[in-house]
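wait is this the right file?? whatever heres the structure
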């Protein structure tokens, strides 16, 4: 049994005008590349966590073909909410889980298990500017936007805490934490997300959202305070899911 993760599929089977192919050669036939790699690597008893930004479809009816594709990937699938996942009303995660029961699992305000680990997670959030540059260095940023971002960070933090608390109450003490957004913004070395990861002794934090080579180093990678941080956006991984355990 193994645990894998990858994010930012940005499927667009029913909204082809949103194709990502203009964003570089990594995106050419990316669906096919991912399917081929998954079939090679992932067995039916493995788990694949999809880290959000699954589809460009806005309403559920525009996502059906993309869900068919996701369902046809091998293994047990756990989905995280990305900022572009408009089909996913944050308050209706239970409804989604009921609708896709036995096929797909949606992670928010809940948790899943893998061997003796709890898989916890939420969309997350991080301030992405605008930043103001001086001589190529960040000299300031939009204070109103930063303040607004703090509110969204707070909301996501509460959702993540609930995920930890439920797993903890059920006796789990080993954690893998998943976020769609990176755990810190480009100026930070810590955040409430890294704090809670340290507090619960998380072993790995896996995130996505940063795609395009210019963004691959926006946040923490490698080991910090004993926690392994990994970026697992699809184009960064060349559509080969990252093995977590
Ligand atoms: Fe994305
Ligand atoms: Fe995103």
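ok assuming it is, sequence goes like this
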């Amino acid at each position: 049994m193994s645990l894998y993760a990858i994010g930012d599929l940005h499927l667009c089977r029913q909204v082809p005008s949103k194709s990502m192919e203009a964003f570089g050669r990594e995106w050419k036939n990316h669906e096919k590349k991912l399917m081929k790699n998954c079939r090679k690597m992932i067995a039916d008893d493995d788990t694949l966590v999809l880290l959000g930004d699954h589809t460009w479809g806005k309403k559920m009816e525009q996502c059906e073909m993309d869900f068919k594709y996701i369902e046809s990937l091998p293994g047990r699938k756990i989905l995280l909410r990305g900022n572009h996942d408009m089909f996913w009303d944050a308050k209706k995660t239970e409804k989604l889980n009921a609708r896709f029961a036995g096929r797909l699992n949606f992670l928010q305000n809940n948790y899943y298990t893998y061997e003796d680990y709890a898989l916890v997670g939420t969309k997350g959030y991080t301030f992405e500017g605008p930043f103001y540059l001086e001589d190529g260095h960040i000299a300031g940023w939009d204070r109103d936007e930063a303040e607004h971002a703090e509110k969204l960070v707070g909301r996501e933090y509460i959702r993540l805490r609930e995920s930890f608390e439920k797993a903890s109450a059920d006796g789990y003490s080993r954690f893998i934490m998943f976020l769609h957004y990176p755990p810190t913004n480009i100026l930070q070395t810590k955040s409430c997300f890294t704090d809670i990861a340290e507090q619960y002794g998380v072993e790995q934090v896996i995130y996505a959202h940063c795609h395009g080579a210019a963004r691959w180093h926006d946040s923490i990678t490698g080991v910090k305070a004993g926690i392994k941080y990994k970026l697992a956006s699809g184009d960064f991984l060349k559509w080969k899911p990252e093995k977590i355990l």
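The radius of gyration is 17 Å. so i think its the right one actually
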